[in-house]
Design brief:
Blueprint (H helix, E strand, L loop, with lengths): L8 H14 L5 H9 L5 H10 L7 H8 L4 H5 L5 H4 L2 H20 L1 H4 L2 H14 L8 H7 L7 H26 L4 H10 L6 H8 L3 H13 L11 H17 L1 H7 L1 H20 L12
Helix pairs in contact: 1-11, 1-17, 2-7, 9-11, 9-16, 9-17, 10-11, 11-15, 12-14
Length: 288
């Protein structure tokens, strides 16, 4: 598909929708709401809230759709978490957490503003062109009802757009010949991915597995002995993002250039104060 949008316009818009969606994963509100339904382990909570839209799935499905987690880490919590809280219970708790998180980070006045309602309308319009085919996490979330309150409708739309792009991104990573750890290592080397400490702590991989993936990337000429991307590595990561853009083009083309520009403007005004308020942990992003 040839795009009528300015270069990387969809990627820039997604770069704001993604943190708007993702902030709840790091929120104390999520921990409180999940603990209230019996899910007290933060790792179990993450797997549960992101997978709940798919129903009572096993560890294999979560490993496949989440991609960069060690299967053994997933299996520590799935499917056992469903015995503690059924997916429908988890989804309700997740929505309460998203509501509380957005109200806390943005304030009641902004949350109830016309700008948030406008952003919700634009983002939902973009989702009209998303497709379920070969996009399991998006497809599962697309079957959920749209919340009535505008700030949650916007969060829901951001979730759909985030998972739609994410599902396509995984296909691109596979086509590039990157396994989960190699994908993490190469993304970290860009300076825009998770720090090694954070990636190892949350994804469950060992330092030996990280080092082995680094060695494989060096053999392919993608990183140098210091772990920095080579020219070939930079080119590959650029190709990965460009291919992901192509697979994720439809919703933004459907919204149109003026709509994408306006949604980006509105999301910038929302996400900037969220970041300033500490929505994400320090030290999460970086090469070290």
């Amino acid at each position: 598909m040839t795009s009528s949008l300015p270069e990387r316009a969809g990627r820039r818009c997604h770069g704001l929708l993604n943190p708007f969606h993702s902030a709840h994963y790091f929120s104390p509100d999520l921990g409180r709401e999940l603990a209230a339904v019996g899910v007290k382990d933060p790792r179990a909570a993450y797997f549960a809230v992101r997978a709940a839209a798919m129903g009572v799935v096993g560890a294999g499905v979560v490993t496949a759709t989440f991609f960069n987690f060690r299967h053994e880490r997933v299996a520590e919590h799935v499917p056992a978490v469903w015995e503690t809280a059924a997916p429908v219970v988890v989804l309700a708790a997740r929505e309460r957490a998203a509501d509380a998180t957005l109200r806390r980070l943005l304030g009641e006045e902004v949350t109830a503003s016309e700008e948030v309602a406008e952003a919700a309308r634009l983002a939902l319009r973009a989702t009209e062109a998303c497709t379920r085919t070969a996009r399991p996490l998006y497809a599962a979330h697309a079957d959920l009802p749209v919340p009535e309150r505008p700030h949650l409708a916007l969060w829901h739309a951001a979730t759909l757009l985030r998972e739609h792009r994410g599902d396509g991104h995984l296909a691109v990573l596979l086509d590039a010949g990157l396994d989960p750890v190699e994908a993490l290592v190469s993304h970290t080397a860009t300076g825009r991915g998770m720090s090694p400490k954070w990636a190892l702590g949350t994804r469950g991989w060992t330092r030996d597995e990280w080092d082995a993936a680094s060695a494989r990337l060096r053999e392919r000429g993608l990183i140098d002995p210091e772990g920095a991307l080579t020219e070939a590595g930079v080119a590959l990561r650029r190709e990965i993002e460009d291919a992901t853009d192509r697979l994720d083009l439809a919703p933004y083309e459907h919204l149109g250039a003026p709509g994408v520009e306006r949604l980006t403007e509105l999301m910038t005004a929302l996400v900037t104060p969220m970041l300033a308020a500490g929505a994400f942990p320090t030290g999460m992003i970086g090469k070290r």
